[in-house]
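Table S4 entry, N-acetyltransferase domain-containing protein.
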Amino acid sequence: MVDTFSIESRLLIREFDEDRDVKVVGKLEKNCEIGTKKGVSIFTNMMGDPLSRIRFYPLHVMLVAELLESKELVGVVRGCIKSMRTPSESLLKIGCILGLRVSPTHRRKGIGLKLVNSVEEWMLRNGAEYAFLATEKNNDASINLFTNKCKYVSLSSLVIFVHPIISFPAKHIPKDIKIEKVNMEQAISLYRRTLRAKELYPLDMDSILKEKLSLGTWVSYYKDEGCRLNLQRNMVESVDEDIITNEITSSWIIFSIWNTCEAYRLQLKKSQPLRFLHTTLNHARDKIFPCLRMSVSESLCTPFGFLFLYGLHGEGENLGELMESIWRFTSRLGESLKDCRVVITELGFGDALVNHVPLTASMSCIDDIWYTKRISSHSDENDDELLMKRQIGNVFVDPRDF
């Protein structure tokens, strides 16, 4: 039985101090054992910046758990807050929990629970109505903590698709398909319309598109189907104006690309505890490593980045070839970036495009689950739109969360 009183009396939860905690947190995260202790493992190389995953949010925090007597850091958690919208036009302020870690020698003592409670309190103080997190389907420890001890409920099931860049070598994009880049104003206008099809999406899409890690937005369509994209305009005059005219192509897809290579890298090591890019990837070593077609010796000293496809939205019946062309296009772009090895995207089970991802022999699929709970008081739980729906199938996956 955990002596909760004892650990709480000996534990200080405080904010991360960049001046004194950088090296210690880096060491802590490298020593966190998740999953197997043998074979090839994967972990995140933060490139000396533990805040790299949350700096893109105006409201963010990183908390550490420190033993009062020894001053040893034994746990860490990150949190951020963003505004989301539902199809019914409801506005929700949601806090996201990212990167919960507890030192292997101090587990099962209530430290993880204390960190979660503390980051929830920070979210509540900053106006969040819900707390939210994602975890891989097979992560029993994480699911037990959040569902049994913290009372989170399942919100959505998603799939992470992982594809090595080298899987699309020489074959070109079909000549009848055009992939055209749109400017920032056009991208914002397009997403203003297409995001309405999502059951949950962020309000600050323009901020995401303008981040330095976002490489741009493209539209893929068939040349001979009469696509009429008003791409000649440099500006979109009205916020409600659609840059796709009535003579729309029968099949088209919009997508954006996020480049993690400049913020953090993945790294594979042999006979080390499993590290991970994101809580959803804690069993990803068996799926990602074979895809990379690298030798173990090569992986020991070569951190690598990846491109993340986000904002995918497709319309029309003939989307299969368009999706394959998007993966080829992104892979080709990744080849031009130093140390970029993988293309990744994540789609909800209710997203129409989930059935059109090119499932080649090199593609790996990882089941992801989103959980949530209301942290602010609510007078009528039966009127809680998010929790009453329980399973939402078509959601926007924020590249900042990944």
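The radius of gyration is 22 Å.
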